[in-house]
Amino acid sequence: MPATKTLPQSAADALETAMDEAADEDPIVLWWDDGGYLHDVIESVAYSLGYEFHAAERTPLELRADPPRDRTVWYVPQVYDGQVDWFKDIENTGSVIEQHIGKLAARCFENDRIQAATIRTAYEDAEDRERIAQTFYEGLDGDGGLPSLKKLQTEIVLEGHDDPVQFVLEHDAEELPDGDDLRKIRDLLVDDGIAAVEGESDARTIVDCTRRWAVAEWLIAEGLEKGRFPEEYQSEPGAGIGVSRPELQSVLSKTERKQELANVYLDPGQQFWQEILDSHDDPWELLGCPVGASLEHRLWEEWRQSFEVEEYETCITRAKQRHERLDSIYGEIPWTRVWKQAVDVATLADELETWEESGDTGDVVDLYGDFENGTWQIDSAVFDLIISGEPEADLPQAHPATSTLGSLRSHLVECQYLEYLRDLGDLVVDQIDAGSPFAGESHAHQFFAEEQEHLQSGESVALFIVDALRFDLAHKLAESIRQELPQLEINENTWVGTLPSDTEFGKAALTPGSKFSFNIELQDGDLVPERNGRKITNHRRRTLLENDGWSYIMQDEDDDVGWSSEQVAYYWNDIDETGENELTNFEELFSDRIEAISNIICEKLRKGEWDRAYILSDHGFVSLPGHVDIDDIRPPGDEEKVSRRWIAGTDLNSDAPGVLLDEDAHLGYLDDDAKISILTDPIQRFRNQGIPDARFYHGGALPQEFVLNFVTITQE
């Protein structure tokens, strides 16, 4: 039964009746309030009716100090004990009201005075009267409509919560009251249709039954036949206007305790309705239900079986759907992260299977660097998989992913990915041995000549030259900038870096000058890059750029003057330095670096309003699995310079390790006398060269090292 009046309306009725029934024409109405919680209500109502209002601050006698002349309300915030005779005259000429907030609240329910007495006694019997008074204030102020008596009773018992079902679904048994209050909650649950708790008197049992009912309700809402459940758990469809939704869904949409409730409703120790779910033919019909470990485990086992029979597209679709569902309900929790990684695992498996089945032996640059179908996406999938870590470690041990996901991940990354790298290396060897490799491609040493129209047009231009920005990382960087600055036009293009793909040669290639002026030759046994016959050192590179009108800024330099120039070349070395020095978790660090680079570029583009900007790189890198044995090989005795991934000399022949580059390669920048033998096998390196890092290196001839993604940014 809903309330018919608010607290102020009931107070107004009481005051007006008292005034009308008084013997005096300008009476005093004396209001005794046991508890003193009606002060603001009575004061506001008195003034709204045109009455004077005076409240006793310390003792009722102080009200006598100022005799009233008009209709007046005297308010005393205490119980009337009947022992004083200060107000006998008022009893004869005016009127006395003895009502605390509990009595006044009961008067708000005129149509059910008998049942409303329960809220009066709840106030009188309460140890914490202030809490119940606040419940009356909030419930009977008229904002948002008037509550039902049941709703108000529930809020009193549940300390402000107005829905007994949702309260029990969210709180553990320890948070329920005991005794009569627990029985009241049980009866309220039964009234709300949860027949399973009828007659129960144990808080733990009441909570468990209510949760089982709620999980069943959600499964039924997703399409599981209601008749499969015991009758007391067969929830009835919600009544009223609009589409009803499961009670648990309402709880999870409001609560700030999503993590805690995920541990409750996905807890393997709570196998809600396992037998029913085991007998259901297709659990994926129920994937929208994000509660119940029984369903979660069944979904994972079905997903794993699809993976084992190589139904990778199905695995990707289903893992995405389950991830999105759990994420929309709980946000970032271990179960969500596991399904996210399941997407990455299936994506990588699909990419590798496509590679194995294609048998593609075409141009290696197009094969790797095609933006729609290039195998650079395999590296991206591996990268995503590695940085997502081991999410199954945070799951309860009983979850089936704890025993399966790690082995799937390691087999892909440590076995199949390695085989892919070896196959790719063999294709590079074949293409170089065939002569004139990478013909018709855009080469990095031609960049200034190819882009001369824009670089010397008077436009403001910024070059962001990022050391070791591998193809897939450049794509991630471009995507990040697209999201941050959608008003810019961002294009990605495939370029071929220098061989060997070392910083010294890659950065030397990205200097002003004709494409014919770049050269790599042997000088006194040292392989050096040149422009116009002069060796390019770090100092020389800076001089070439500055002579061509560029401001030259290194990472972390505080150079506001340089950034004010119309042409700026900014060098970022963090990725290469991280890979060379961090031997354990550099993928995670690379991810952070990409975010940092994106922030810098976006900041400069916002401030500088550049007409055009480029993101360039000198080389990429090979990222090997965490557990792999590197085969240290000896260079031939006639080498003149040895690095980790290449050797150079004048007398090297085809018996040298790796693939031989010489004048027959027709790269356009290799000296006629210099011969370079470059490794393509991903697990080989030359002995005793470089730091003992078996995961990150460059300088060789895998596409990951020399096929580059150059990003062009223009104002639309």
From TrEMBL:
Pfam families reported in the protein's UniProt record: PglZ (PF08665)
Domain of life where this protein originates: Archaea
Keywords, in A-Z order: Plasmid
UniProt protein name: BREX-5 system phosphatase PglZ
Organism: Halococcus dombrowskii
